[in-house]
Amino acid sequence: MGTNGSTMLEPLRQGLPPLDPSAVSSAASCSLPARYEAVGSARQFTRTTLCQWELDERFDDIALVVSELVTNALRHALPSDTPRDHGPPVRLHLMRWTSRLVCAVRDPSDDSPVARESDDDFSAESGRGLFLVDSFSDSWGWHPLAGALRGKVVWALFQLV
The pTM is what? Predict the structure, then answer.
């Protein structure tokens, strides 16, 4: 049973990676406004956090993935009627275990992230971000928020050793 490109990049609708939440050694998060300048803020937050965790050498790959996840959240997940009084609509979480790091971006959209891969779409910037996420992280996926919260979390996992 071979895999072709369309099934490989089909987003996983699953919970966070199989990691014990109680074993998290470090965690940090920040709220991001619904403006494209938030991508730069997310990169700076990621740089500061990775420096504190002594993971500076992983910044390039992780920051690229963070940028793509935040850009996707801002571009595709924020309808124009998103109420601005419900707190910041996008939130970035960085969680570190001994040998893994997860970056997760929460947004208010219930829609699945979609990787576009037709030749027509590939020349467009839109849709390529998830290919980069898939290429630079060790695994990724998404899950809907539970309870009263609307939206989803898209996450990417990095092996640290």
Answer: 0.78
